[in-house]
Amino acid sequence: MDLQQQSYRAVKFLVFLLAAGVLVADQSQAENPCANGPPVEMNPAECCATPMLVDGSIMMDCYQKYGEQTKKQLKLDGVPRGCCIAECAMNATNMYADGMLKRDDVAKMFMDAMRDKPEWMALVRDATNACFELAASKMEEIEAGAKLEPSFEGEKICHPISGVVLRCMGMMMFAQCPPTVFNDTENCKKLREYGSMCPML
Ligand SMILES: *[C@@H]1O[C@H](CO)[C@@H](O)[C@H](O)[C@H]1NC(C)=O
Ligand SMILES: *[C@@H]1O[C@H](CO)[C@@H](O)[C@H](O)[C@H]1NC(C)=O
């Protein structure tokens, strides 16, 4: 594997990790099934090679710009902060404006990315609808996140909508990985179960 492919894989993995981080933010600590972390130490990409939804070089560029700040932000409590990697990618593809994603264009971009991957098409179409519905149901929290003030030197505040949708997509795709793609081992089954409810970073 050459270097570029390797970094694409790394980015893909990271995007996946970010992807998993949304749905449980407001779960109570007491019955939190995620409290102990993933049950197995495995790279999710070894269990399900999820295809990229956004051009790899764009993701890489955005990760370079905002990866460090995103890692810091994930450690903060309170209202979830917007993911600037995701917003940067949605800006670069012209999908984001004024606190909104252009839903039809995003759906088309995702489907175009699946052009040569028929086993993913129906899943990605359904996941796109589900993730936009999820975002709509979380609008209050999303708007609150957009209004946060920087909490450390140089923190850029991004609108959470892009991250919510991209993370949700990653989580859905992993949780529903097509049988032809899924690495059907005990460990991977455990990770899929965990990954369908918990953030993995
Ligand atoms: C499938 O999972 C096993 C461990 O459960 C791992 O060793 C192997 O590398 C995985 N295969 C692929 C293609 O990633
Ligand atoms: C995305 O574009 C908007 C302008 O539409 C800008 O305000 C915002 O800072 C950009 N976000 C990133 C992460 O570059």
Topology:
Layout: H1 3-19, H2 44-47, H3 56-73, H4 84-92, E1 96-97, E2 100-101, H5 103-113, H6 118-137, H7 139-146, H8 161-175, H9 186-195
Antiparallel strand pairs: 1-2
Describe this structure in words.
The protein is mostly helical and 201 residues long. It has a single domain, classed as Orthogonal Bundle (Recoverin, domain 1), CATH 1.10.238.270. The chain is 56% helix and 2% strand. It has helices at residues 3-19, 44-47, 56-73, 84-92, 103-113, 118-137, 139-146, 161-175, 186-195, and strands spanning 96-97, 100-101. Strands 1-2 form a two-stranded antiparallel ribbon. A hairpin with a 2-residue loop joins β1 (96-97) and β2 (100-101). It is globular, with a radius of gyration of 16 Å. 35% of the residues are buried.
What is the strand tally?
Answer: 2
- What is the number of independent domains? 1
Radius of gyration: 16 Å
Mean of all residue-level pLDDT scores: 86
CATH level-1 class? Mainly Alpha
Structural class: mainly alpha
| Strand percent estimate | under 5%
Q: Please give the share of residues in helix.
A: 55-70%
Q: Quick one: biggest sheet?
A: 2 strands, antiparallel
The appropriate CATH architecture is Orthogonal Bundle
Total helices: the number is: 9
Strand order of the largest sheet: 1-2
Order of helices and strands: HHHHEEHHHHH
